Amino acid sequence: MMKLCSHCHQPLPELRAGVRLSPLKAHIFDVIKRADSNGITIEDINAICFNGRASAVNVRNHIHQINDALAGTDFEIRGGAPGMVGYFHIVKRHWNAVP
User: Does the structure show a pLDDT above 80 at 50?
Assistant: First the structure.
C-alpha cells in the first residue's frame, strides 16, 4: 500500500538500500530483489510493474536511474550479460581500494 503525506496527500518516497526511490522505482527494486540470484527478465519486469505497456528501453532506463540512486551504496542492479540484457538481479558492489 502506497504511503501518502498527511499534509499534501502526495506519495511519499520509499527507502531501499538506504536511498529514496519513487513508489514505481521501489516496486521495480522489490521485484528484482524477490527474483533473488536467479534474476528476472525485462519482459517479466514489464509485465509485473507496467502491465506489459512499457518498452524494454523504458524499463532499462528505470533500472539505470535506480542504479544512479544506488551509486553511493553497496548495491547495484546488474544484467546477466553486457548491455543490460538477460536476467537482472541485485548484487553487492565490490569496491576496489585505490593504491
Answer: yes
Question: What pLDDT, in 10s, does the model give residues 9-34?
Answer: 988 889 999 999 998 999 999 999 99
Q: What is the mean pLDDT of the chain?
A: 89
Look up the pTM and report it.
0.83
Domain ranges of the chain: 17-92
Q: How much of the chain is in helix, strand and coil states, percent to nearest 5?
A: 40, 20, 40
Nearest one of 15, 14, 19 to 71, comparing CA atoms: 19
CA end-to-end distance (rounded Å), the chain:
47
12 by Cβ neighbours in 10 Å (0-12 / 13-18 / 19+) ranks as middle
Which SS3 state, helix, strand or coil, does residue 4 take? strand
Helix crossing, 23-34 with 56-69: angle to 10°? 90
Assigned CATH topology for domain 17-92:
Arc Repressor Mutant, subunit A (1.10.10)
